[in-house]
Specification:
- The protein is mainly α.
- It has one domain: ABC transporter involved in vitamin B12 uptake, BtuC (Orthogonal Bundle).
- It has 13 helices and 4 strands.
- The radius of gyration is 20 Å and the shape is globular.
- It starts with a helix and ends with a helix.
Length: 321
């Protein structure tokens, strides 16, 4: 009898451990990285370093917010990096008409890519990974056609946006935080957010319940495209140069990592915005740690891949119970 109880207790304890790992592992990882950097990284606690890390994580966070919405519907958007490239090309072409018009064009471009992604998924029935993979390749090509080479985008308004601050907090960080709050409120407190989660939990059940599944899916991918466009706009403003060849490269990997590590399951039905924020910070801090200790950039990709495998494994094992 005691052996039976023991065998039941071990799997139960394992399930609890895996659940804790999925929900809170990202915060534990952050603590470990912070302690390591405080102990072994020179000037880590300086205000300038914190400012730099916050500015660099902002585009990752903004893209990850859109990715979290897509994954919440049991989808994914692999085109976000290419949307950033398209954004920087459009910005370079239209900045001469003023930054506000250029921003409008950039947002329309991101929304158009999202509309195409969402339409292929919702109306044509193409799998999200296939539809967005096709757009990832095609949109990057379009960005290079529009702007074949690096171009300076020096403009007083753009320079102020890229390097300015309010009481020491950079504008790009404030924008990222504001967007995180808006997306978090949307997911938790609006009908659209509840419909999104219901679709991710079970699309057939959502259809039977009369939810506007197609419309919600299209809107999710439009939001994802627009958020990626904003990230591209802000990244270009910070760099003061448009480079569609490199901007946004592997951003989809960073965004997916941030979302999954933050506790949002790939199976959909749940979106953790606070976890996504923590996941984006974790990815940026991991990258910065490897760079500051003279490890090549390839190690960052290896580390991100390992983190994704661990996070997906925890979610998979939890889903079995």
């Amino acid at each position: 009898m005691a052996d039976v109880v023991l065998r039941k207790a071990v799997p139960a304890d394992r399930a609890v451990l895996l659940r804790r790992l999925q929900e809170y592992g990202v915060y534990g990882g952050l603590v470990v990285l912070l302690v390591f950097n405080i102990a072994f990284t020179a000037n880590f606690l300086s205000a300038e370093n914190f400012r730099t890390q916050a500015v660099q994580v902002s585009p990752i966070l903004i893209v990850a917010l859109g990715m979290a919405l897509a994954i919440g519907t049991e989808g994914v958007d692999l085109s976000v990096g290419s949307v950033m490239a398209l954004s920087t090309s459009l910005l370079a072409l239209y900045l001469g008409y003023g930054p506000w018009l250029a921003l409008l064009v950039v947002l329309v471009g991101g929304a158009a890519v999202g509309l195409l992604n969402g339409s292929l998924i919702a109306f044509v029935g193409v799998q999200p990974i296939v539809a967005t993979l096709a757009l990832m390749v095609g949109v990057r090509g379009l960005a290079l056609v529009l702007l074949p080479q690096l171009k300076d985008v020096r403009n007083p308004g753009m320079a102020s946006l890229g390097s300015g601050d309010v009481v020491g907090i950079p504008y790009v960080v404030l924008i990222a935080v504001a967007l995180a709050l808006v997306v978090g409120f949307t997911v938790r407190r609006t009908t659209f957010g509840r419909q999104l989660l219901a679709i991710g939990d079970s699309r057939p059940a959502a259809q039977l319940a009369g939810l506007p599944v197609r419309r919600v899916l299209v809107l999710v991918y439009i939001c994802c495209g627009m958020l990626a466009a904003v990230a591209g706009f802000l990244a270009t403003a910070r760099l003061q140069a448009s480079d569609p060849t490199s901007l946004g490269n592997l951003m989809e990997l960073s965004a997916i990592t941030a979302v999954v590590v933050g506790g949002t399951p790939l199976s959909g039905g749940r979106v953790r915005i606070a976890g996504t924020v923590a996941g984006a910070v974790l990815i940026q801090l991991l990258t910065a740690t490897l760079i500051k200790h003279d490890l090549p950039p390839s190690w960052t990709q290896i580390a991100q891949g390992a983190v994704i495998v661990l996070a997906v494994y925890a979610a998979r094992e939890r889903g079995k119970r």
